[in-house]
Amino acid sequence: MTNSQLYNAIFHRRSIRKYDMTPLPVDTIEKLQEYTYNVKPLDEGIRYEIDYLGSADVKNLLPIKAPHYICLYSEKKGNYLMNAGFLLQQIDLYLSYNNLASCWLGMAKPAKGVPMLINGLEFVIMLAFGNTTETIHRVDTSEFKRKNLSEISNVAGAEALLEPVRFAPSASNTQTWFFSGDLDVITVSRKKLNLLKAQVYEKMNQIDIGIALFHLWLSVDHQGKKVSYNFDQDIAPNGYEFMAKVKISKK
């Protein structure tokens, strides 16, 4: 799987909520596991593990059932939620490129009797995946329901760079990210939530930022450049919370 293939998957990916409950072939799962073993973390200092569950092993508050689930477990430190989003979005795009349906599940967890801890790492989030009778891909980008670029960024000349980021999935399509700065250093921020919304979305919106950061990583790579990250607290636009600075440079 190349970065270009993942990048191209951004523009056709869609969330699927209805699945054929027939398990996938063993070789399909093995290829996925091989890919998953080599995913790139946002923060290499955070320990994590990825596990696979079946339909009977998951409890979901929403009526979404799939034959397979990918669960991410992590130590709870630093930017572990952004790291989780960054990691699993690589798998989400891999699945889409390989004509497999998937969906982020923010209200699901391992069922009773299934470990919430693996090697001292806590369950964070999961993806449902499998085959479906629904259309897996969008025909074109007009099918996305996303904010206009002017609503999520004030970076001059960044249309080509941030358009793939604009299509990132987020919890309930909240799209709380904002990008400021310039084409050399972009500040990534997250909209501040009131107390009520924070109870529902605080965790998921941090995962969403990780998803967006992976789309940004792919977009920068597509332009033949590289990124480095700085998570030290800095100034964010009014109404937003600082999440990261992304420095873009030549390879």
UniProtKB/TrEMBL annotation:
Residues 6-219 form the Putative nitroreductase TM1586 domain. Pfam families: TM1586_NiRdase. It comes from Desulfosporosinus acidiphilus (strain DSM 22704 / JCM 16185 / SJ4). InterPro entries: Nitroreductase-like (IPR000415), TM1586_NiRdase (IPR029478). One of its GO terms (molecular function) is oxidoreductase activity. This is Putative nitroreductase TM1586 domain-containing protein. Gene3D superfamilies: NADH Oxidase, putative nitroreductase (tm1586), domain 2. Belongs to the nitroreductase family. Keywords: Flavoprotein, FMN, Oxidoreductase. Its cofactor is FMN.
